[in-house]
C-alpha cells in the first residue's frame, strides 16, 4: 500500500499541475518561439513507403445529422459485434479527429477538425486494425496532410496484443480498430514551453470527444481508455518514449442498436467486482 504521506504529496503535486498560475515564479520565461528558434514540423514524416489515399466521399455515409440526438446517443461502448468497418467509415473517423481543413501562413499552423492551443496539434494517430474492409490487419499511422493511411507492420496475435496493451482489458480485443494517440511534446513546447503540458491534456480531450461524436453519428461504439501499457504501446509503433509517447487510446467497433443487455451486464460486473 502506498505510504499515506507520499500519497498526499503526489495528490498535491497533481493539483498544482492542474492550476493555471502563470505569473508567479516564472516571469522571466522565454519560449523557443520568442527566442526565434526554428519551428518544429507540423506533422510527423511518413514512417514507411506504404501510404494509401483514403476516400473522402463522406456524403455517401449513412449518418445521423441531428446534433441534439448525437449528444444524447453519445456514450461509452465496451461490447462490440465484431462486424467490419468500411474503409469510408474509418476515413471519416480519422478526418473527424485530426483532419486538416487548412494551412495558415508558410506552414505556420494547421487548422483541423478539433481545436488546439495555438493550433499546435501535438498528437499523432496510430491504429491497430482488426476488422476494416480493404485493410490487412496490423499497425497503421495516419498522415493528415494528405489524408492517407500508411501500413507499418503486421502484428502477431492481435487480440492478445490489444488486450495486453490496454492493461488486460479483454473487451477491447473485440473492437474493429483501436486508436492510439501519441504526444509529440516539442510541437507545443516550442510555443508554450514550461506551460505547454496542461493545455495539451485538454487538447487530447477535444480529439477524444470528436471520436465519440463521429462514432455516434455512424452508429458505432467507442470507449476512451486511460489505462494502457505506455511502453508496450510505444514499442508497437516504434516511438522513442521521450520525444513521442502514447497518451490516450480508444477502441472502436460495431454495436447492436437494440440489445444493451450485454453492456448492462458489463457494468454490473464492474460494480460487483469493485473495479
Structural overview:
By secondary structure, this protein is an alpha+beta fold. It has a single domain (69-273), classed as NADH Oxidase (3-Layer(aba) Sandwich). It is built from eight helices and nine strands. The strands form two sheets. A seven-stranded antiparallel beta sheet has the order 1-6-5-4-7-9-8. Strands 2-3 form a two-stranded antiparallel ribbon. A hairpin with a 4-residue loop joins β2 and β3 (109-112). α3 runs antiparallel to α6. The mean pLDDT is 92.
Brief descriptors of the model:
two-stranded antiparallel sheet; 275 residues; 33% helix; globular; seven-stranded antiparallel sheet; alpha+beta; NADH Oxidase
Kindly state the percentage of residues in helix: 25-40%
Helical region count? Answer: 8
Tell the overall outline.
Answer: globular
Let me know the number of strands.
9
CATH superfamily: NADH Oxidase
Estimate the strand proportion: 15-25%
What is the domain total for the residues? Answer: 1
Unreliable runs, pLDDT <50, ≥5 residues? Answer: none
Order of strands in the sheet with most strands: 1-6-5-4-7-9-8
Secondary structural class = alpha+beta
Quick one: CATH class?
A: Alpha Beta
